[in-house]
Amino acid sequence: MRGCAMLLLALALVASADLCRGEGVHSAANPIRKVVTMLQSMQKKVEEEGAKEKELYEKFMCYCTSGSGDLKASIAAAEDKVPAVGSDIKASEGKLEQSKADLKQAHVDRDAAEGAMQEATAIREKDAKAYADFKADAGANAAAITKAVAAVEQGMA
């Protein structure tokens, strides 16, 4: 509609330009010719913009028709996944609880092992002290026997 109106205006200007030429009105740069040329270039630009808008409209409509189908398929796939993901979550929660229980038991076992190590260390220290006392006593007795043997040998000689 817009293009037709511009075309009619251009034709009217061309016709009036021809009439002016016929009457002998001439100028160096015909203003009517400039207007006609400008209108023709505007018409060309409007037609190009119309073609671009039509192409964009078609792309949008294609997206609207195919996009909703893709969206529905995506929603259906997600809804199918929901039970599987729910069971995976429950399984993971069960594993988490088991891991927490195992960790708690490991802490208890570690504390028990540390207590046993402290007890064993205390026993070894007690045994080491008893051995050191026994060794010192035995060393003193051996030294006394050696002196006694030397004194008896001297006394017999």
Can you describe what's shown?
The chain is an all-alpha fold and 157 residues long. 94% of the residues lie in helices and 0% in strands. α1 packs across α2. The radius of gyration is 56 Å and the shape is rod-shaped. About 4% of the residues have low confidence.
Which helices and strands, and how do they pair?
Elements: H1 2-23, H2 31-156
In short:
94% of the residues lie in helices and 0% in strands. It has helices spanning 2-23, 31-156.
Task: Specify Rg, calculated over alpha carbons.
Answer: 56 Å
Helical stretch tally: 2
Series of H and E elements: HH
Principal-axes shape call: rod-shaped
Key structural traits:
mainly alpha; 157 residues; rod-shaped
